[in-house]
Amino acid sequence: MKKILKKLVGLVGLVGLVGQITAQPQIALLKYGGGGDWYANPTSLTNLIAFCNQDQQMGLNPQYATVDVGSAELFNYPFVHMTGHGNVVFSDREAQNLRTYLIGGGFLHIDDNYGLKDFVMPQMKKVFPELEWVELPFSHPIYHQKYQFPNGLPKIHEHDNKPPKGYGLIWEGRLVCFFTWECDLGDGWEDPDVHNDSQATRQKALRMGSNIVRYVFLGE
To answer: Can you give the pTM of this predicted structure?
Structure first.
């Protein structure tokens, strides 16, 4: 927990973090416009947070928040998760708000729940027109936290039967956005009876998810 608080103190520019430092750091789900199901996988973050707390004693708030992409409340959360299947639209004001948040020290994890990529990538181009997505090498620290993923992201759901890919947006040497595609970690985080995934599959998803959270909060 001390390492997490140290990381939070270092997130210069996230104006709401003073309150969180005295409480428990909280993960948030991003709410966006355009008609896509931003609310997909309703049990996933609750289960991921519980896993992080039980497996690694991260001391996270057991309840996740929901935050609009254009809201000032975005700055209260060091880690924001985004998911869905369909359309995504950021207004110019929302894109600027998200950009300010990410440049100031925030982190966005986008998990494609199947069909999100073609919608979200143009919107993220509005956020960072000067950046290009890069596929993270398998040697990247995000794959080597408590759990080792020497071949990158685990394959949780088949989708189009393509290999899973992890893409990043890197601002001044820092990974500010991680996009997981053809993987569907969020489905693997959900309650067991939602997708009837095996325990082994769910464990892979939760372990990779905890790696992402640990990477963001501990900076290791």
So the answer is: 0.89
